[in-house]
């Protein structure tokens, strides 16, 4: 008797938000939970107070990218309680937990022993064989490769077989085997997103939050860290926060209320020369700032290093 083909549940939309619970969704969030969500329209629909509420009311946890696998724990009507294995967290040793619309997920055949195409462009268009557009994929999306040509990469997707332009991707052996980049490469990657609007819970090039930004800039350079700033601040090598002369580009800087003694609330990437690039807060965009004389200068609570070249 033939064995059933193994399957995997994956995200079937370019990006979906992972919610604390379905009852956290407001009317103004309709574009975020639509069958084909649109983050830009969702952001535009919110006024200043609604944007602030999204940040402060524990509504969103994180986001999933197109093709990202999930474990489904249970379903409740049109919602699924999931675990995101590619996003480490102290909340669950298996991955990041939360709820997503069931319509944003799809069960597809599992693939093994395949290399992956990692999107290196800000966004990359996914195409059918006859050159019809399928979806616009965010930076760092990862899809199994069926065949790699000189101009196009044939990939296995929730929409069936599709194609990405070769110059928009990097071929990697596996999702957890992205080649290591240098400290300067982390900063250079981050600078590509200058001006991108902050988005609470954001894990995509449609909008990052502070720790989503640090997570993905390091992941793009083969460094795998936790999803949230609190967890990130306990990983890597501890660097003397009081001696800025020993800080290196690519280090992560962490900040806490009460002049560094209270609750940790922010993370940025050190650029060298007293500068930091970060995704600051709702209503603002990714920027480079000089730390000296800012509130961050007073709130610095930890410096962590993840690049091997500087830890040896």
From TrEMBL:
**Residue ranges annotated for the NlpC/P60 domain, each copy included:** 180-307
Q: Kindly give the SUPFAM superfamilies that the UniProt entry links to this protein.
A: Cysteine proteinases
Q: Which InterPro entries match?
A: NLP_P60_dom, Papain-like_cys_pep_sf, Peptidase_C40, SH3_16, SH3_YKFC_2nd
Keywords on record: Hydrolase, Protease, Thiol protease
Presence of the UniProt keyword Lipoprotein in the record: no
Say which domain of life the source belongs to.
Bacteria
Query: Does this UniProt record's set of keywords contain Hydrolase?
Result: yes
Q: GO molecular function terms here?
A: cysteine-type peptidase activity
Any GO BP: proteolysis
Q: Which family does it belong to?
A: Belongs to the peptidase C40 family.
Q: PANTHER family this protein is in?
A: GAMMA-D-GLUTAMYL-L-LYSINE DIPEPTIDYL-PEPTIDASE, MUREIN DD-ENDOPEPTIDASE MEPH-RELATED
The protein's name in its UniProt record: Polysugar degrading enzyme
According to its UniProt entry, this protein's organism is: Planococcus plakortidis
Q: What is the lineage of its organism?
A: Bacteria, Bacillati, Bacillota, Bacilli, Bacillales
């Amino acid at each position: 008797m033939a064995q059933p083909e193994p399957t995997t549940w994956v995200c079937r939309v370019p990006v979906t938000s992972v919610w604390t619970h379905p009852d956290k969704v407001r009317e103004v969030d309709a574009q975020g939970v639509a069958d084909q969500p649109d983050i830009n329209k969702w952001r535009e629909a919110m006024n200043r107070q609604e944007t602030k509420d999204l940040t402060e009311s524990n509504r969103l946890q994180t986001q999933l990218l197109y093709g990202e696998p999930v474990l489904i724990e249970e379903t409740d009507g049109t919602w699924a309680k999931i675990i995101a294995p590619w996003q480490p967290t102290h909340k669950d040793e298996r991955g990041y937990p939360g709820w997503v619309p069931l319509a944003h997920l799809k069960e597809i055949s599992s693939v093994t022993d395949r290399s992956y195409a990692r999107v290196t462009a800000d966004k990359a268009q996914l195409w059918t064989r006859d050159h019809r557009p399928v979806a616009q994929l965010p930076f760092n999306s990862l899809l199994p490769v069926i065949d790699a040509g000189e101009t196009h990469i044939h990939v296995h997707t929730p929409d069936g077989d599709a194609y990405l332009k070769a110059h928009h991707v990097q071929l990697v052996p596996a999702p957890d085997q992205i080649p290591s980049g240098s400290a300067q490469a982390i900063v250079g990657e981050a600078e590509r997103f200058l001006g991108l609007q902050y988005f609470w819970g954001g894990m995509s090039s449609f909008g990052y939050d502070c720790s989503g930004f640090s997570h993905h800039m390091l992941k793009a350079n083969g460094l795998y860290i936790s999803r949230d700033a609190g967890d990130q601040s306990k990983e890597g090598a501890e660097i003397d926060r009081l001696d800025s002369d020993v800080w290196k580009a690519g280090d992560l800087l962490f900040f806490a209320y009460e002049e560094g003694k209270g609750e940790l609330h922010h993370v940025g990437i050190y650029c060298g020369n007293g500068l930091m690039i970060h995704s600051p807060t709702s209503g603002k965009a990714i920027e480079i700032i000089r730390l000296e004389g800012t509130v961050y200068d007073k709130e610095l609570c930890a410096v962590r290093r993840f690049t091997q070249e500087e830890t040896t």
